[in-house]
Amino acid sequence: MDNNTDGWKIKFRSMIRKQNINMLAWQENNTNPQTEEELNGLLSILGKLKDNVQSYCENIRQYGWEKHSTSLPLDQTKLVEQQKFLEETQGILADDDHVGGN
After folding, report:
1. CA distance 6 to 9
2. pLDDT band at 94 (very low <50, low <70, confident <90, very high)
3. What's the CA gap between 99 and 78, in Å, rounded?
4. Which of 3, 13, 85, 94 would you label with 20, given CA atoms 20 to 30 Å apart?
């Protein structure tokens, strides 16, 4: 599968979703299973679900995770404003080493 496209992710997620829906439908339609055949239907759905989840996990391991990191600049004016509010309303004094200090 091509690592540059996300088509494989969509494919496996939809396959997993389908089996989850099948399991919910089975539970609604078989509230009190009476035969071995009805139970085998549930086991069949569970087996397909396990296979799909395993395939999805293997592909994630093979192609890796995309790592994203985001750095947000720290707005010192908001920190100073918040500290001033805390000092005025709750008597909490500013620690210059942590708020607005260098």
Report:
1. 5
2. low
3. 10
4. 3
